[in-house]
Write a structure and sequence with these properties.
Helices cover about 45% and strands about 10% of the residues. The chain is built from 16 helices and 13 strands.
């Protein structure tokens, strides 16, 4: 950590009242997810659901699912969750899986399983997976951790994975094809039927990343019957990841990874029998697994139920409709792709979309920035019913301000032009020093980031963007 952080271990405990007041003070600048002013990270469907899940979580706050025999309640609840999710996602009685801490762990486990399957069944020593360019970075993280190669195939102009292009990349080392339902950046469902058919033709595994859509699309399909299939009903799909703590509205720390059968799931497990502390077996990455997260997931699914989830989806769709209607009157903005659910990707037409994002951030809206192409990312939830009208008004104003020349925007443009110039004339060693300087003195975590995102393309072209982002992360994690 940075030397700026002066916290030392307390000599005496703090009284409860003072402690909680300090905690409230720390949270004063956090995103206002209750008020519907953030479009990322928190999935909120109202206090009744939240309070119920919190109470269930608290009832199992101290329990540990590391040893299922010690807490049979957790074992039962986890089995129930897996069975309910398998049923929801088109699985038959053979489909099984595991609860994990989140989408990244679920994806890591699916990739680890593919590696182990490829080695044992096919003798593959240098496994590869084939993914679209829009696939979640957790797949690249999994390959980095577990020693696989990710073969990236560009998406089409519609931002969808291209099955034939994926097929062309298959070789003797391929173990897994990946499709998204939907992909996070543009919210579109990949052509999973085609991808799964190719996987089956070549005797490969096929994973569907439904982390963001797994607890939205099944209920949307009851409203919109022409929605494309995406789950185990498709022949060739062998595993699915889905986050209950997103549109399932469970507590953070709850996701599932499901497999076509138990034989495949065994490739996920880790066992070590030579430890002096006893035989060690672990279904996923975590050893200790918080009982509260399992209880919260179980409670959310049981409490909301099919009818409740369908109603939540309908409410979210009404929010989306308002945004789409508003965009008809804002010619400077457009939606990229044809999103299938509640994720919208906004691009600019004759306006710097990052400047629009900055103006919205100044007004207290939390919105993710995206690149390739430059865009803003909106994840809509039922709680946005209360704030969407205010957001639309501010969106109109943000576009107007983004089009005006100001000293701040002029500074941004100069920064971008400076990077373009320096990347061409400075030696690599000097340009790397400049990047570190930029990372050190940038407004990390601030409300304005248009300049930083504007520089990204040129920094990427210079081939050194990774190092700069590492410096950004280091600074961000070191701030008081």
């Amino acid at each position: 950590m940075s030397k700026k952080n002066k916290a030392t271990f307390p000599q005496k405990g703090m009284d409860k009242t003072t402690l909680l007041e300090e905690l409230k003070g720390l949270k004063k600048d956090d995103a206002d997810w209750r008020g519907g002013r953030n479009f990322a990270y928190v999935y909120f469907a109202g206090d009744e659901i939240l309070d119920t899940v919190k109470e269930a979580y608290g009832m199992c706050f101290s329990e540990n699912a590391l040893n299922p025999t010690a807490f049979p309640s957790l074992r039962k609840m986890e089995a129930d969750v897996i069975a309910m999710c398998a049923n929801l996602l088109g699985g038959d009685d053979a489909v099984t899986g595991s609860l994990t801490s989140g989408g990244t762990e679920s994806i890591l486990m699916a990739v680890k399983t593919a590696r182990a399957w490829g080695k044992k069944i096919k003798g593959i020593e240098h496994p590869e997976i084939i993914v679209a360019s829009t696939v979640h970075p957790a797949f690249h993280k999994a390959c980095y951790y577990f020693g696989l190669k990710a073969v990236v195939v560009p998406v089409g102009e519609d931002f969808l994975a291209q099955p034939e292009a994926m097929k062309a990349e298959i070789n003797e080392n391929t173990v897994l094809l990946v499709a998204s339902a939907p992909s996070y950046p543009q919210g579109v469902i990949d052509p999973i039927v085609e991808v799964a058919a190719i996987a089956k033709e070549y005797d490969l595994l096929c994973h569907v990343d439904a982390c963001v859509g797994g607890f939205f699309l099944p209920f949307l399909k009851k409203i919109k019957s022409d929605l494309p299939d995406f789950d185990f009903k498709i022949d060739g799909v062998t595993s699915i990841s889905a986050d209950i703590h997103k549109y399932g509205y469970a507590a953070k720390g709850a996701s599932v990874v499901l497999y076509k059968n138990a034989t495949l799931r065994k490739f996920q497990f880790y066992v070590y029998t030579e430890w002096s502390g006893g035989i060690y077996g672990s279904p996923a990455i975590s050893g200790t697994r918080p009982g509260g997260a399992i209880a919260g997931a179980w409670a959310a699914l049981k409490f909301i139920g099919m009818e409740g989830y369908v109603q939540l989806v309908q409410r979210t769709l009404s929010v989306r409709a308002k945004v789409e209607e508003a965009l008809e009157d804002i010619s400077e903005l457009k939606i990229f792709g044809k999103p299938d659910m509640s994720i919208l990707c906004l691009g600019g037409v004759g306006v710097d979309i990052y400047e629009v994002g900055d103006e919205l951030a100044v007004k207290g809206w939390l919105i993710d920035r995206q690149q390739n192409p430059a865009s803003l990312h909106l994840t809509l939830t039922p709680t946005h019913e209360k704030s969407i009208d205010a957001f639309i008004l501010d969106l109109h104003q943000a576009v107007k301000k983004a089009k005006q020349l100001t000293l701040n925007k002029l500074s941004n443009q100069l920064q971008v032009k400076t990077v373009k110039g320096l990347s061409k004339v400075l030696p690599d060693s000097m340009f790397e020093k400049f990047q570190k300087f930029a990372a050190k003195y940038s407004d990390v975590g601030g409300k304005r980031s248009a300049a930083m995102y504007g520089m990204m393309g040129d920094l990427q072209a210079a081939g050194n963007l990774d190092e700069m982002i590492l410096d950004f992360l280091d600074k961000l994690m070191s701030e008081e």
